[in-house]
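Inputs:
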Amino acid sequence: MNKLLVVGTVAFDAIETPFGKTDKILGGAATYISLSASQFGVNSGIVSVVGGDFPKEYLEKLNAKNINTDGIEIIEDGKTFFWKGKYHNDLNTRDTLITDLNVLANFNPVVPEEFKNTDFLMLGNLHPAVQMAVIKQIPVRPKLVVLDTMNFWMDNTLDELMEVIAKIDVITINDEEARQLSGEYSLVRAAQKIHKMGPKFVVIKKGEHGALLFNNGNVFFAPALPLEEVFDPTGAGDTFAGGFIGHIAKSGDISFENMKRAVISGSNLASFCVEKFGTERMENLSKEEIEKRLLQFKLLTQFDIELS
Amino acid sequence: MNKLLVVGTVAFDAIETPFGKTDKILGGAATYISLSASQFGVNSGIVSVVGGDFPKEYLEKLNAKNINTDGIEIIEDGKTFFWKGKYHNDLNTRDTLITDLNVLANFNPVVPEEFKNTDFLMLGNLHPAVQMAVIKQIPVRPKLVVLDTMNFWMDNTLDELMEVIAKIDVITINDEEARQLSGEYSLVRAAQKIHKMGPKFVVIKKGEHGALLFNNGNVFFAPALPLEEVFDPTGAGDTFAGGFIGHIAKSGDISFENMKRAVISGSNLASFCVEKFGTERMENLSKEEIEKRLLQFKLLTQFDIELS
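Outputs:
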């Protein structure tokens, strides 16, 4: 069974959407990524940090999904990272109301001994210095290193981010971030420029408009499933990334053909994530539901036009 | 050979994009639709109106593509409809600088005798009263009637528009217009509501984000081809519609399966349209180029994920 190490935030989120609001609930990039990847039955572990206020039940929830939490440091006299946000009516935009870094402010990641030989490494959205610290703790290069990041790090820590980008295989960012990072409006040209920064594979996430996978002149597009109702978009991007790396880690196949399936798997899982608040839907998701919706992706995109 | 009647504007456009600007060039919805549909070798004709200022060469250009222009009324002492627009840097939004209706203001469409038994009818974006006048001149209902319209008519002539919508089979509108017409944000729900207004098929155009086809609970998605450079988006939506109806008119097949191919054909042709100013690219487009790009659409979207 392939090992997958996930680095990222484990957090409290408080979410408000047009459909309701939550108190502090389980959130964080590593949480969503791991829950999504856990659908593929890989041997996964998280590297993160939480405070003494983080409920043991949350860790047990993750353990119940076969996610190793030994790498989640607990700082007993500290507080867990907290994010509060409010979505606008279109659910495509949101205001961040609170970002309390708390224990994340001084996070020194430590990779557990058992994951130092991880086959796959997923660097969730975090300070690039933390991402780099994890890369340096892994002596044998993993088969594939995937990086997620965001505009905040491009604005504030670009040099450090570029050093990380030079070391990874796959970058996942959204369309605006791809444009910012490359200085190109066309996503085709943006991907070309980002390839030159290091990543052989560039995944551009477009939210409700799907995702593009670029590799060496090849391009593949996975749509988002058109849904009757989007309840809470929180974690959809991380769930996409988790489905992507989970699919690859399960198969061990890092070919472009298999990455196509991986972006479809990621889109599929993200389509569930948004149906309920927070991680609720991802915690209660059956193999049958996933397969049924994969069939919908096939029906949505497959056609048999003949070329003469 | 199936007959296709296209109703819509034949116009002068003056276009400004970040890459350059044009004087008055050939434009109009019926022009783009017909040029696009002409790729499929159907027997097509236009119903429209122009002024005495409209160059004979433009009509000859259309005739050279086997497009019948007998239904284009020429009002010798009138002036042709003129539109001037300027695109913003992202090419997704534009300002309309001039709209001179001219001869279009009093347009009474007359369907030529030879097209009164048309197999397919494409109602391009126009005043709904004009669209209805054409429907009423065709005694035997065509196999398929496709309607394109826009928010302007929803704002200003909604009752007349709803009467037309009740009589047609396929509506093509953009995502914002679908939301406006239905009062639903979710495009799935918007399509459900629009079905109830009459059209069995709802095509929602999302520009660079592709197009969705809805029919009776089924949904299909055609992406836009990711392009290195978009030069001028003018006419892309009409070119899409022309490719859609052209494909269907050639095959005579109005099944959902064939409409999938039709939206792919429409997206394919639209991807050429935007590569040059105005109609230039559509006037010089080979079968080989079209087929080659269809293969790109296959590579872009087809995957072989296995369901257990």
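Remarks. The interface with chain B takes residues 89-90, 185-189, 206, 209-210, 212, 218-221, 223, 226-230, 257, 260-261, 264-265, 291, 294-295, 297-305, 307-308 of chain A (CB under 8 Å). The domain at 3-300 of chain A is CATH 3.40.1190.20 (UDP-N-acetylmuramoyl-L-alanine:D-glutamate ligase).
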